[in-house]
Design a protein that fits this description.
The protein is mainly α. It has six helices and two strands. Strands 1-2 form a two-stranded antiparallel ribbon. Strand 1 and strand 2 form a beta hairpin. This is DUF2200 domain-containing protein.
Length: 116
């Protein structure tokens, strides 16, 4: 089974697209960073270091300090796929992040996005 091309894509290439998506909806880059740090366990310096190093998605999630214990509560559809049914663990993490960014762009309250 071949690996999906996004696994080798630089996280730093997609990150600005996440920011642009939410800024178009009057949300902030700080909120994007907060979501990413919540999900992955990176602190702000760690997130910025990964972006600076131009790591791919596989490395970004592979080096993540710890996925949030409530990430299993992320449910819904992204690109026509239910995130809770994604079988590949790396693809599921990417879809979780996509889902959280979508929720932010749609104006969902941060407490609900972070499953608090």
């Amino acid at each position: 089974m071949s690996k999906h091309p996004i696994f080798a894509m630089a996280f730093a290439k997609v990150y600005p697209m996440y920011v642009q998506k939410v800024e178009r909806k009057n949300q902030s880059k700080n909120d994007v960073d907060r979501i990413i740090c919540w999900l992955t366990g990176y602190d702000q310096a760690g997130l910025e270091a990964q972006i600076e190093k131009q790591v791919d998605f596989a490395t970004f999630f592979g080096e993540a300090p710890s996925m949030h214990p409530n990430c299993h509560l992320i449910k819904g559809v992204v690109c026509g796929v239910r995130v809770e049914e994604v079988e590949d663990p790396l693809m599921q993490k990417i879809r979780w992040l996509d889902k959280l960014i979508d929720e932010l762009a749609k104006g969902k309250k941060m407490e609900k996005i972070l499953r608090e």
